[in-house]
C-alpha cells in the first residue's frame, strides 16, 4: 500500500519507528536517510514528536508524492552550515524538501540553525509544478527560511516565520501567494521576489539592518519577471523594487511607499495606509435672477 500514516507521539524516547496496524508510532526519530516519500505515495503525520535528521546532505522529509503535516517538530540538530565564511561545515541540507505536493498545518514546527542551506525548499529539482501550502505553524532558521525554487508554487495562509538572510525567497520560475502570516527578519529582507508574487495580507517586519520588508527584482520575461502585486498587509520596513514591477492597491506601510507603485485610483494617507482617492465636486449655486411672476 503506497498510502500510510505516521503518528508522532510526544517525548524523547526511542530512536526507531516501529510499524503497527495504525501506521508508525514513535516519540523521537533520529534519521540517517530521512523520510523519503516517492512519487505516487501519500504520507500523513500527526502528533507532537520530533523528526531529526543528523546526516549531511539529508533532510527530515524529502517528498516527491503527497504529504500532509498536522503536527510534529522537524529539524536537523547536527546542522553545521555557516554564512561567513560561507560553507556547509561538513553537515548541512534542507530540513524539508518538497518536489511533489505538501500541506503544512497548525501544530507543526520546522527548524534549521544553519546559515548555508535553506530550511524549506519547494521545487528546484522537478519538471512540473511543486505545490506547497502552509496554513500555520512555526518556522525558524536557514539561510532562507522558505525558498520557493524553480517550478515551485507556494501559498502561505498563516504561520510564524522568522530568521534567515531572507525569510521568504521566491526564486527563478516560482510563483508565490501570501494571504496571511507573521514574517520577521532582522538580517536582510523579509520577502525577496525574483519572479511572480502576490501579497494579500500578513505582517512583515524588518525593523533593523537595511529595513527592507519586501524587495522585487526582475531580470527577464521568462523566469525572472519580478512581478509583485500587493493588495493588503502591514509592512514595518521598506517596500522596494530593484527592477521589475510593483502594483499596490492596499496595505499599511510604516516607511511609506513610492507613489509610482500605487495603482490608479489609490493614494496613501497620513497613517501610511493605501486608500481610495476621493474627489470633491463643488456644484455652484444657481445665480440666475428669479423671473418675476406675471
Written description of the protein model:
The chain has 294 residues and is mainly beta. It is built from no helices and 33 strands.
Keyword list:
294 residues, 12-stranded mixed sheet, 44% strand, 33 strands, mainly beta, 10-stranded parallel sheet
Q: How are the SSEs placed, and which strands pair?
A:
Blueprint: E1 3-8, E2 18-20, E3 23-26, E4 28-31, E5 35-37, E6 42-47, E7 50-53, E8 61-63, E9 66-69, E10 72-75, E11 96-98, E12 101-104, E13 108-112, E14 120-122, E15 130-134, E16 138-141, E17 144-148, E18 152-156, E19 160-162, E20 166-170, E21 175-178, E22 182-184, E23 189-193, E24 196-199, E25 203-205, E26 212-216, E27 227-230, E28 234-236, E29 238-241, E30 245-248, E31 252-253, E32 266-268, E33 274-276
Parallel strand pairs: 1-3, 1-6, 4-7, 5-8, 6-9, 7-10, 8-11, 9-12, 10-13, 11-14, 12-15, 13-16, 14-17, 15-18, 16-19, 17-20, 18-21, 19-22, 20-23, 21-24, 22-25, 23-26, 24-27, 25-28, 26-29, 27-30, 28-31
Antiparallel strand pairs: 2-3, 32-33
What value does the average pLDDT take? 87
How many strands? 33
Note the total helix count.
0
Helical content class: under 10%
- Order of strands side by side in the largest beta sheet? 2-3-1-6-9-12-15-18-21-24-27-30
N-to-C span = 100 Å
Structural class: mainly beta
The biggest sheet amounts to: 12 strands, mixed
Low-pLDDT stretches: 7-26
- Coarse shape: elongated
Please state roughly what percent of the residues sit in beta strands, choosing from under 5%, 5-15%, 15-25%, 25-35%, 35-45% or over 45%: 35-45%
Rounded to the nearest angstrom, the radius of gyration is 24 Å
Amino acid at each position: 500500500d503506497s498510502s500510510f500514516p505516521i503518528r508522532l507521539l510526544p517525548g524523547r524516547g526511542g530512536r526507531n519507528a516501529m510499524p503497527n496496524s495504525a501506521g508508525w508510532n514513535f516519540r523521537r526519530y533520529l534519521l540517517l536517510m530521512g523520510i523519503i516519500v516517492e512519487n505516487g505515495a501519500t504520507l500523513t503525520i500527526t502528533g507532537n514528536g520530533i523528526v531529526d535528521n543528523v546526516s549531511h546532505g539529508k533532510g527530515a522529509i524529502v517528498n516527491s508524492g503527497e504529504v500532509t503535516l498536522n503536527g510534529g517538530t522537524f529539524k536537523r540538530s547536527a546542522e553545521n552550515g555557516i554564512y561567513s565564511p560561507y560553507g556547509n561545515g561538513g553537515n548541512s541540507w534542507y530540513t524539508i524538501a518538497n518536489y511533489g505536493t505538501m500541506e503544512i498545518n497548525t501544530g507543526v514546527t520546522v527548524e534549521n540553525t544553519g546559515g548555508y542551506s535553506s530550511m524549506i525548499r519547494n521545487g528546484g529539482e522537478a519538471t512540473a509544478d511543486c505545490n506547497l501550502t502552509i496554513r500555520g505553524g512555526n518556522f525558524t532558521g536557514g539561510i532562507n527560511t522558505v525558498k520557493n525554487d524553480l517550478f515551485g508554487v507556494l501559498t502561505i495562509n498563516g504561520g510564524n516565520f522568522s530568521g534567515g538572510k531572507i525569510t521568504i525567497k521566491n526564486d527563478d520560475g516560482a510563483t508565490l501567494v501570501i494571504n496571511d502570516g507573521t514574517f520577521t527578519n532582522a538580517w536582510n529582507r523579509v520577502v525577496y521576489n525574483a519572479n511572480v508574487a502576490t501579497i494579500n495580507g500578513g505582517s512583515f517586519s524588518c525593523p533593523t539592518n537595511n529595513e527592507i520588508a519586501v524587495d522585487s527584482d526582475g531580470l527577464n520575461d521568462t523566469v525572472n519577471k519580478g512581478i509583485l502585486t500587493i493588495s493588503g498587509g502591514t509592512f514595518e520596513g521598506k517596500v522596494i523594487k530593484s527592477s521589475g514591477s510593483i502594483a499596490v492597491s492596499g496595505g499599511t506601510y510604516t516607511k511609506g511607499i513610492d507613489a509610482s507603485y500605487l495603482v490608479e485610483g489609490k493614494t496613501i494617507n497620513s497613517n501610511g495606509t493605501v486608500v481610495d482617492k476621493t474627489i470633491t465636486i463643488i456644484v455652484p449655486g444657481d445665480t440666475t435672477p428669479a423671473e418675476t411672476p406675471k
